[in-house]
Design brief:
This protein is mainly beta and 152 residues long. It is built from one helix and eight strands, in the order αββββββββ.
Length: 152
């Protein structure tokens, strides 16, 4: 990577910004080459699931290699039945919906409670959250889920 004088006293010009962006692009390409493409397998994501969330949410897409994953869950609204049943959520991977957390883990959880899970996300499967909406009109329960995956 060539060394360039990018900043002049008192001014930053568009040419300078373009040069800086080009240098960052080169640096990213160099780092990717050194890692052998592993950066594509590293990922992170966050999702908020509320009482009416229903179905499967893909938090992290599949990768061709197994990855270590750390999952952090924060309860943002108390899980309570009210006049129906509170919502449920499992955290797992495609083909094993509760691999990291079973639905019972969040039953009755108080707002502000945090949970942490870690393990290996298998190759060629996505990290998923399977939700079943609460029933009734006064049930409650919501979570924020953040996951970070890193190639092994």
């Amino acid at each position: 990577m060539p060394v360039e004088e990018l900043f002049k006293v008192g001014t930053i010009e568009q040419d300078t910004l373009d040069s800086l962006n080009a240098m960052f692009g080169e640096l990213f390409t160099d780092v990717a080459a050194l890692q052998g493409g592993a950066q594509a397998d590293n990922a992170s994501a966050t999702v908020a699931l509320i009482v009416s969330s229903d179905g499967v949410t893909t938090l992290l897409p599949a990768a061709t290699v197994a990855r270590r994953v750390i999952i952090s869950v924060q309860v943002t609204e108390i899980f309570a039945n009210g006049d129906g049943a509170q919502p449920t959520h499992t955290i797992g991977e495609t083909g094993s919906a509760a691999k990291f957390a079973a639905a019972a883990r969040f039953t009755g959880a108080a707002a502000g409670t945090t949970f942490s899970f870690a393990g290996t996300l298998s190759a060629d499967v996505a990290l998923i959250i399977t939700s079943v909406a609460g029933t009734g009109t006064t049930m409650t329960g919501a979570i924020d889920v953040t996951a970070i995956a890193s190639a092994q």
